[in-house]
């Protein structure tokens, strides 16, 4: 296993994450091709009544909290979510408005928190990837020195070669996972928008 090969693998993989040179200098650790939008604004997804009087009061209603948890979970099919929203938003116009505002506020808080958590995780992983490249570079230099010595210690050479193989494998596994996870913030955005639209329609 040559030094040149290992470094080439590591840096080629890092470049393939889209963050070897950050597309947006404001977010140097952002690894995704999609532009980083740190937060979703309420106005971007909600055209219903003002939420100024809601705050976090949705947490005080067990029924709303339970429904928020179910609807926010991406494993809940949208068809099922739409039915649950319609079943929940019943009563007089004022009651439907109150329920709808609470439900959306809960979904906005919950999905925004999920989104932030995913994005922070991606950036942490990107920093680990950069550290991994440095480690591979240092270890390949050490391996080359061992192999070039007058009487190389074959046991150490083999041990370090195996270690480098493992390090590059971990690096590649992380790269593949990151590529998949990069789609998650967009999926969360789309789910929040779809749920908000459903709530507003059922409030009418």
Concise structural overview:
This protein is mostly helical. 71% of the residues lie in helices and 0% in strands.
Report the structural category: mainly alpha
Low-confidence stretches: none
Give the C-alpha Rg: 25 Å
The N- and C-terminal alpha carbons lie at a distance of: 67 Å
Q: How many strands, which pairing sense, and closed or not: the largest β-sheet?
A: none
Query: Tally the helices: what do you get?
Result: 7
Q: Choose one word for the global shape.
A: elongated
Please state the average pLDDT score: 87
What sequence of helices (H) and strands (E) makes up the elements? HHHHHHH
| Estimated helix fraction | over 70%
How many distinct beta strands? 0
**How much beta, percentage-wise?**
under 5%
Task: Tell me about this structure.
There is one protein chain. With 204 residues, the chain is mainly α. The protein has seven helices and no strands. The N and C termini lie far apart (67 Å). The relative contact order is 0.18.
């Amino acid at each position: 296993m040559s030094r040149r090969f290992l470094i080439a693998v590591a840096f080629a993989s890092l470049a393939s994450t889209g963050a070897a040179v950050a597309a947006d200098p404001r977010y140097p650790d952002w690894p995704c091709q999609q532009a980083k939008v740190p937060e979703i604004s309420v106005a971007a997804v909600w055209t219903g009544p003002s939420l100024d009087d809601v705050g976090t009061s949705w947490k005080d209603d067990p029924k709303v909290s339970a429904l928020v948890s179910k609807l926010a979970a991406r494993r809940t099919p949208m068809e099922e979510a739409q039915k649950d929203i319609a079943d929940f938003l019943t009563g007089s116009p004022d009651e439907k408005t109150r329920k709808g505002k609470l439900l959306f506020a809960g979904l906005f808080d919950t999905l925004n928190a999920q989104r932030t958590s995913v994005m922070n995780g991606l950036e942490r992983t990107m920093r680990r990837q950069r550290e991994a490249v440095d480690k591979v570079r240092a270890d390949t230099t050490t391996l080359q020195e061992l192999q070039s010595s007058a009487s190389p210690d074959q046991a150490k050479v083999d041990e370090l070669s195996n270690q480098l193989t493992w390090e590059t494998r971990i690096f590649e596994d992380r790269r593949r996972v990151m590529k998949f996870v990069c789609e998650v913030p967009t999926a969360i955005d789309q789910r929040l928008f779809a749920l908000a639209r459903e709530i507003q329609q059922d409030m009418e």
